[in-house]
Amino acid sequence: MSLRLAAVDLGASSGRVMVGRVGPDTLELSEVHRFSNGPVRVQGTLHWDILRLYQETLAGLGEAARTGPLDGLGIDSWAVDYGLLDAEGRLLGNPVHYRDSRTDGVMDGVLRKIPAEDLYAVTGLQQLPFNTIYQLVAERALDRATSLLLIPDLLSYWLTGVAGAEATNASTTQLYDVRFRTWSADLAGRIGVPLELLPPLREPGQVIGPVLPEVAEETGLDATTPVIAVGSHDTASSVVAVPAAAGDRFAYISSGTWSLVGLELPEPVLTPAAQEANFTNEGGVDGRTRFLKNVMGLWILQECLRVWGTDDLVQLLKGAADVPAFGVLVDPDHPSFLAPGNMPARIAEFCAQSGQEPPTSRAVIVRCVLESLALAYRRTLRRAQQVAGREVDVVHVIGGGSQNELLCQLTADACGVPVLAGPVEASALGNVLVQARALGEPLPDLDAMRALVRATHRLRRYEPQGRPADWDAAESRVFGTR
Ligand code: LFR
């Protein structure tokens, strides 16, 4: 016997609906619908096209229903962004994209009123300019809103009519008290957000409700199909699917538009050192802590491809593999790489300002991005281990970036430990695993879920090569001795 479950997994550059089959020895996914996603600029503001995302979700669920009856469905997406609803439950405008410039300078203003130490002591969150707390300070429609729903919660609300806030994603808002696992009334009050705006919290595994009759009619789903809260933050779902064995000393890199680099811990680390290093303590499934940092990720490369008008990554990677190592390097987390735009030009600019010859060929630019990412991974992992007092023997690279062989090899070389790459669709796997448990599949804990991922997915291993001293030299070249 196995369960048939739909995972709706929305990333910043693409979304997909997958049908998963989960049983005692079975964990299979098949993609039934894939669609593009990205910012839409309207009169100077970057939005998400949320109604199209909903429509694509319905289309995907319709495809899924055509493959046979479903036992449940769950939604995960990127974090921090939200829709505001009025008293009748209607959406007040298109959600704003976290890369929009409305938050420029907002963080500094808030930190003058709320000391960074106080924020960290309560939320344990890394400072990113687009955290929900800063978006809300910049929000214009706040006085008309009665409820705030994070993106996956908004879509679940449209599917079921039931509002709520799933905890792993709520933990990314910087309004969530990581110690007591509740909304922070104090922080909300201090930025002028009424607590009533924030809906009741729910845990991954909770059944949200059956799909509405109109949804059943449009998709062909059975009207009793439950929508289940999963780790609705995509990174929380992908960490569920890290194929580590019990007792392994592992780190992970959830590699997509962002690279989320860190450790899984039983408790948050709220020390001054953790704050200083700007590590986040995001909530994981089963109460785990995702102790990690955002590294800019494949975003820079995606934007290069967009500007070059090509999607032939394979050819570009071939070229980059032949470029000599340790040429041009950048700090991928430099704020100039955050907003959409001409990344090749911004890389050239970074090089000019740091006394390097700006790269002209595409191959050199791609090599530069990948080596710079590997360097940032190395630096982040070292800090994570120091600050959390843990050692790591292996790095699991999961998500789309696990298919990038050059990046995986560079990551192993830079970090000086083996990389295990895969699974690619980690978020969707974590999504269906949590649903399966909610519906009674005997997957008592994360170890059991991960054992099933290991037993059913082939991983690729990369051994570290090259000289560690070269990476030391590269690191001090880019970051100084900091
Ligand atoms: C990855 C991710 C990151 C989050 C960023 C913005 O898709 O969810 O975890 O920091 O997107 O929401």
UniProtKB/TrEMBL annotation:
Top-rank lineage group of the source organism: Bacteria
GO (cellular component) term, any one: cytosol
UniProt keyword annotations, A-Z: ATP-binding, Disulfide bond, Kinase, Nucleotide-binding, Rhamnose metabolism, Transferase
GO molecular function term, any single one: ATP binding
Domain Carbohydrate kinase FGGY C-terminal intervals: 251-438
GO biological process, one term: glycerol metabolic process
Family from the record: Belongs to the FGGY kinase family.
Protein name, per record: Carbohydrate kinase FGGY
Source organism per UniProt: Kribbella flavida (strain DSM 17836 / JCM 10339 / NBRC 14399)
Organism lineage: Bacteria, Bacillati, Actinomycetota, Actinomycetes, Propionibacteriales
